[in-house]
Amino acid sequence: MSDNYGSKRLVVGAHYGLRDWLSQRVTAVVMAVYTVLLVVQLLFGGKLGYERWSAIFSQQWMRFATFVVIASLAVHAWVGARDIWMDYVKSVGLRLALQVLTIVWLVGCAGWAVQVLWRL
Amino acid sequence: MAKNTKPRPGENMRLIEALQYKLPPAGWVSILHRVSGALMLLFLPLLVWLLDVSLGGEVSYERFSNAFVAGIGFVPAFLLKLVVLALIWSYLHHFIAGVRHLWMDVSHTFTAHTGRITALATLGVSGVLTVVLGAKLFGWY
User: Fold this and answer.
1) Is A1 inside a domain boundary?
2) Given CB atoms, is A59 within the 8 Å cutoff of chain B?
3) In whole angstroms, how far apart are CA B88 and each of A105, B40, B126?
4) How far does the CA of residue A117 sit from the closest CA of chain B (Å)?
5) Which member of B51, B58, B101 has the closest CB to residue A116?
6) Rounded CA separation A28/B102 (Å)
7) Chain B contact present for A102, CB below 8 A
8) Which of A117, B36, B86, B130 could form an S-S bond across to B94 if both were Cys, CB 3.0 to 4.6 Å?
9) Which of A89-98, A111-120, B50-59 is least confident?
10) At a CB cut-off of 8 Å and minimum separation 6, what does A112 contact?
11) 3-state secondary structure of B60
12) ipTM of the shown complex
């Protein structure tokens, strides 16, 4: 940044606030649209059993959409969990540990869900 | 309230004081948005596991359905259904409160009145839908 000196020098914040705020909202919209698409498929089409349930997720466009949702959920939940840790956990060491645990938790679950999706 | 628990100016409320604080409906929506998100994060592996067993073939699907009837492993069916019910409420509340949030972000037309009405609607609609889906989950219809 060329004007980041003198009286204009940025001295506070990591400046990821807006990016995180926006990504949480964009991912929310993605997941909300997906929810509607899934609910519509569940409500119409007769009795729900294994046949119909697995058929929904074996459509290529649904795998595409579900994969996008898995990624969105990981980003969305990361921003949310980080907000919670920042608000309530004052100890820097404990907060870092919880943040690392959150990332491990989310990445692990996302990997597992992706495997479920493409095993079919 | 004991004298020494009273917050001095600029000091944060203690948890016990926060719990005694009377929240307006929008405040309830806000804190429950956080609680429901945390619940879903905590039980995320359960949700992926449910997706896993339900999509793992006919036999696996039977195991999935049976978990809600006869339980699975050390978890009785009742407990599983109770957790799933909590997750159903969490999803509904988080979804509706989230849509309200996005609406507030883009419209800038919220007043104290519409904020209150939509907060009550959020709590009401998510509650009613939870009862409807919960009754289905517990096999009442």
Assistant:
1) no
2) no
3) 21, 9, 9
4) 8
5) B51
6) 9
7) yes
8) B36
9) A111-120
10) B45, B48, B52
11) helix
12) 0.87
Cβ of B55 within 8 Å of Cβ of A57? The answer is yes
The predicted pLDDT at position A8 comes to: 73
> What CATH number is attached to the domain comprising A88?
1.20.1300.10
Question: What domains sit in chain B, N to C, each tagged with a CATH number?
Answer: 24-43+76-137 (1.20.1300.10)
How many domains is chain A partitioned into structurally? 1
Determine the structural domain holding residue A111 and report its residue range: 11-119
The pLDDT tens digits of the residues spanning B83-126 come to 999 999 999 999 999 999 999 999 888 899 999 999 999 999 99
Give the H or E element holding residue B30.
helix B25-42
Residues B14 and B29: their CA atoms lie apart, in Å, by 21
> Do A84 and B99 make contact, defined as CB atoms within 8 angstroms?
no
State whether residue A37 sits within 8 Å of chain B by CB.
Answer: no
| A32 interfaces chain B, CB cutoff of 8 Å | yes
A53-63 as b/e, with b when 16 or more CB fall inside 10 Å? bbebbeeeebe
| Residue that wins the pLDDT comparison between B40 and A4 | B40
Is residue A101 one of the residues assigned to a domain? yes
pTM higher than 0.90: no
Q: Alpha carbon B110 to chain centroid distance? A: 24
- Residues of chain B contacting residue A35, judged by C-beta atoms under 8 Å apart: 95
